[in-house]
Amino acid sequence: MEDYSNICVITNIGTHYRFPIYNRMADEFSCAFYLGNKVETPIKTFDYNQLKGYKETLANRYFHHFYWQKNSVKLIFKSYKYYILDGEPYCLSSWIILLLAKLLNKKTIAWTHGWYGRESSIKRIIKKVFFSLHNKLMVYNNYAIDLMEKEGISPNKMYCIANSMDSDKEKQLRNTLKRTTIYREHFNNDAPTIIYCGRIQKWKKLEMLVDCVKKLKQEGFLTNCVMVGKDVEDVHIDDYAKSQGVENQIWMYGPCYDDNILGELFYNAHVCVSPGNVGLTAIHSLTFGCPIITHGDFPYQGPEFEAIKPGITGDFFKRNDTDDLKQKMLPWLNINESQRETIRKAAFEEIDQKWNIHYQIDVIKKVIKDLNEHA
After folding, report:
1. Any idea what DSSP says for residue 160?
2. What distance in Å separates the CA atoms of residue 122 and residue 101, rounded to the nearest whole number?
3. Which carries the bigger pLDDT value, residue 363 or residue 40?
């Protein structure tokens, strides 16, 4: 019987989407959580006091790209045996914790993006040294693990942790979803609808979606597009849509965090498109049965792109190529309801196999078990 009661989690921020997995970790492992304070960022956080096992808020002190977490280093001298860290080389205090852990025979685990595939020579050296100081690495996807193995990092040290949202709640909700007239009522037509869900930011390149809607219209193919999210950078996609003459086909829904509403929007859309890159949007979309399209330049992608199986749960287009995006969208916009149901089932299977809380908990259990066996 493994003892999971000595786990200390140190992270730079308590992001909103992580609350369910952290709460489950608190139940399963009796973790102690030390979470960084929210600085100027559009990232939504949860109320730290609502988390079981929450101990303290650590102040993040930034120096250009680097930062230090005040009061984090002293935690290595507490009675915890395992330390789960963000796995960010930019966190200077993590380096000190890792070095002290070696001296004190404490075990350290990174929860990390790992490799992207676009690292410079200097970054590669720094990352290799940084990750060598950890006992184990929990990496978001297998793509990064493959890159890290090529860099000489042992595959026995790495585990694919994937990512998740509130998977249990969302699984219950998806069983209640059904076809509705939400888009017909807004757009006054039965044309296929494209959805984007996430923050409205310049690097998301949402103008490409507007351009695709315009090109398809010029070709006699009417589509609708709903964009769900807050405009955090004054992108003003609505103004751009008006300048392109397709404002009636674009619905700027605004921010929404209610999965009951989001579930209906995803379920009734034909396809979700994230032109700039994709992150948790892919998981959110597939969770509610909606296929996802994003670009296929993986070094510039979020790790969740790995949930996309071309032709099954979505597709990839040539990065920054609007014409290719339009062509990749067409098959998904032309599907009938029977085909749409097959896609929904494939999307649900992908989430249930890997991108959920239970999968992540099993990975953490295996990491601790392996650490104990090789102690």
Report:
1. E
2. 25
3. 363
Quick: pLDDT tens for 162-174: 999 999 999 999 9
φ, ψ dihedrals at 305, nearest 5°: -60, -25
Q: Which of 67, 73, 83, 79 is nearest to 12 (CA)?
A: 67
Is the CB of residue 78 less than 8 Å from the CB of residue 7? no
Rounded CA separation 71/87 (Å) = 18
pLDDT at 44 over 90: no
Residues 321-337 have pLDDT tens digits of 999 999 999 999 999 99
Determine the longest span between alpha carbons in the chain, in angstroms.
69
Question: CA 70, CA 359: separation in Å to the nearest integer?
Answer: 32
**Rg of the chain, C-alpha, whole Å:** 22
What value, to the nearest 5°, has the Cα angle with vertex 126 and ends 303 and 138? 35
Query: What does DSSP say about strands 54-58 and 292-295: parallel, antiparallel, or unpaired?
Result: unpaired
**What number of CA atoms fall less than 13 Å from residue 210's CA on the CB side?**
22
Closest CA relative to residue 251, chosen from 313, 291, 196, 306: 196
Q: How far apart are CA 198 and CA 194, in angstroms?
A: 14
Q: What number of CA atoms fall less than 13 Å from residue 149's CA on the CB side? A: 13
H helices of the chain, in order, are: 19-29, 92-104, 121-132, 142-150, 167-174, 182-187, 207-218, 237-243, 259-268, 280-287, 322-333, 337-353, 357-373
